[in-house]
Design a protein that fits this description.
Layout (H helix, E strand, L loop, with lengths): L3 E6 L4 H13 L3 E7 L19 E5 L5 H10 L4 E4 L6 H6 L1 H22 L8 E7 L24 H20 L3 E6 L1 E3 L8 H10 L4 E4 L5 E6 H14 L5 E4 L4 E3 H16 L10 E4 L14 H7 L7 H18 L1
Parallel strand pairs: 1-2, 1-4, 2-3, 4-5, 5-6, 6-10, 7-9, 8-12
Antiparallel strand pairs: 9-11
Helix pairs in contact: 1-7, 2-4, 4-5, 6-8, 6-10, 8-10
The structure holds nicotinamide-adenine-dinucleotide.
The site of nicotinamide-adenine-dinucleotide has 30 residues, from helix 1, helix 4, strand 5 and strand 7.
Length: about 325
């Protein structure tokens, strides 16, 4: 079995922490180096249980810090990268777009340059996996269509524009220098350890505290939800077996309007709290829509299914109940 030194950026965040745990526990012959700045969204407690494993090293640092990133590549002889570090919240990107450009674009470029330098343009056995979003494709009409890997990039928010730009740089490093890159574009993830500004953890918290549940517009926007563990499995397959220079769409084939999702969250959370069925429905509060709010995202994941045999396995209700229990426990432990 081939020994590898893999750099995982953003490993103290939501998805990154699940990726790090999966790689540390499954690939004992790999050494995982987690690089994370620990911004407001990063939390070292997300990976506390695996911090001191012999095949894991945590480095606190910024992906835009060129000197540090180059040192990490050299010192740890990195031969694979899974790049998840990013500013990830659309609302924050609307109020502070420059932060998103710097972190998501310059940060990705800094990693690509460090990889190119460390690997001296000899890419045998190397891999640069960039983790991106379906939001780069823009929005779909309510009545049909799905994003495929051939869909045009058409980002609408500063967040998705910064991710689209970073995707372009990654592809350019493959086409220009021959770096073996892969990109995955995934739909909305849910699961434990998400920062509580995002819809599911925020709303569970608000239901517990009987606070308003702010729903944008009419709640008719549609998202395709995927359990984070299914995403991690897809990333594992693409990292190891994806075709260099390719991108893969990853989705749950699980479309929900925001308002129907909120009602389901209320139903399960009320049940878990022992409240009357539907008691918290009165907490729903419709608020002014987000600027440039994309109407619908939906993913055609047939390429990853056909090429790599990946399919989502988590039942949505079951995954949601597990997730809600995790947030309820965290709330009680506070
Ligand atoms: N959450 C989703 O539904 C979703 C869906 C598709 C794609 N993605 C992508 O997956 C990746 C991870 O998303 P997430 O939801 O886990 O994000 P997150 O906000 O929960 O975590 C991001 C992590 O990156 C770290 N980070 C941010 N800027 C950094 C910097 N300059 N240097 C080092 N570390 C830095 C943060 O400390 C944090 O730990 C992102 O690239 C995002 O675009 C997310």
């Amino acid at each position: 079995m081939k020994q590898r030194n893999i750099l995982i950026t953003g490993g103290a965040g939501f998805i990154g922490s699940h990726v790090v745990r999966h790689f540390v526990e499954k690939y004992l012959h790999y050494h995982i180096f987690t690089l994370d700045k620990l911004t407001y969204a990063g939390n070292i407690s997300n990976i506390e249980d695996i911090l001191t494993r012999p095949n894991h090293t945590f480095v606190q640092g910024d992906i835009t810090d060129r000197e540090l990133v180059e040192r990490v590549f050299e010192e740890y002889r990195i031969d694979g990268v899974m790049h998840l570090a990013a500013e990830s919240h659309v609302d924050r990107s609307i109020s502070a777009p420059m932060v998103f450009a710097h972190n998501n674009i310059i940060g990705t470029l800094t990693l690509l340059e460090a990889a190119r330098k460390a690997w001296s343009d000899n890419f045998e056995g190397k891999r640069f996996h960039h983790i991106s979003t379906d939001e780069v494709y823009g929005a779909l009409p309510l009545d049909g269509g799905k994003f495929s890997e051939m869909s045009c990039y058409d980002p609408h928010s500063p967040y998705s524009a910064s991710k689209a730009s970073s995707d372009h740089f990654v592809r350019a490093y493959h086409d220009t220098y021959g770096m073996p890159t892969v990109i995955t574009n995934c739909s909305n993830n849910y699961g434990p350890a998400q920062y509580p500004e995002k819809l599911i953890p925020l709303f569970v918290e608000n239901i517990v505290e009987r606070k308003p549940l702010p729903v944008y517009g009419t709640g008719g926007n549609v998202r395709d939800w995927l359990y984070v563990g299914d995403h991690v499995e897809a990333l594992d397959r693409v990292f190891h077996h994806g075709i260099a220079g390719s991108s893969y769409n990853v989705g749950g084939n699980n479309e929900w309007t925001n308002i129907d999702l909120v009602k389901l969250l209320i139903e399960i959370t009320d049940e878990e709290l022992g409240r009357e069925s539907g008691e918290s429905l009165s907490l729903i509060k419709y608020v002014e829509d987000r600027a440039g709010h994309d109407l619908r995202y939906a993913i055609d994941a047939s390429k990853i299914r056909e090429e790599l045999g990946w399919e989502p396995t988590m039942d949505f209700r079951q995954g949601l109940r597990h997730t809600i229990r995790w947030y309820l426990k965290r709330h009680l432990d506070k």
